[in-house]
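Re: [ENG-882] Designed sequences occasionally contain unexpected residues at chain ends

Forwarding the minimal case from QA. Structure tokens:
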């Protein structure tokens, strides 16, 4: 078992570490952030329970990649949260999805592509993140069922 050690001296920028050492590499890195939201919907042209109005606690996983800046960050997790809250979640959380999303059947497969497009648009509008792009969006409709949109599928097809 290792011994508990209290730091003797807190590292200081420009004394103990130089600014040009903050970014360790020049590789593309994937970062991810998860959110949940509650929403109601129903499906059209569907025979089963989901044809009736019902709700889910959705879980969404956002996967973004990019190159690190001079601090060693691709994009601050707080910035991802702000984009989610301001550009995407306002259309989803505690909403009736059939009303707040563009005309579509509100399947997980359709919603995940809409989220992908909104996040891609928001990153494009920002233009301050070095090569940042959406790699994938995974939308869980239940704890064991999800739909996923991936960059390679969205760009090719």
């Amino acid at each position: 078992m290792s011994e508990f050690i209290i730091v003797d001296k807190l590292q200081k920028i420009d004394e103990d570490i130089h600014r040009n050492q903050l970014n360790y590499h020049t590789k593309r890195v994937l970062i991810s952030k998860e959110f949940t939201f509650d929403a109601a919907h129903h499906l059209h042209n569907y025979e089963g329970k989901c044809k009736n109005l019902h709700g889910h606690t959705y879980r969404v996983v956002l996967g973004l990649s990019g190159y690190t800046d001079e601090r060693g960050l691709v994009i601050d997790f707080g910035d991802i949260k702000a984009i989610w809250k301001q550009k995407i979640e306002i259309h989803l959380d505690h909403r009736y999805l059939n009303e707040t999303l563009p005309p579509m059947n509100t399947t997980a497969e359709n919603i995940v592509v809409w989220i992908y497009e909104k996040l891609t648009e928001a990153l494009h509008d920002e233009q301050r993140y070095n090569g940042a792009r959406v790699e994938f969006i995974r939308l869980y409709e239940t704890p064991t069922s999800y739909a996923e949109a991936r960059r390679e599928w969205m760009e090719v097809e």
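QA comment: On inspection the terminal residues look reasonable. Strands lie at 28-41, 54-67, 95-96, 133-142, 145-150. Proposing we downgrade this to a documentation issue.
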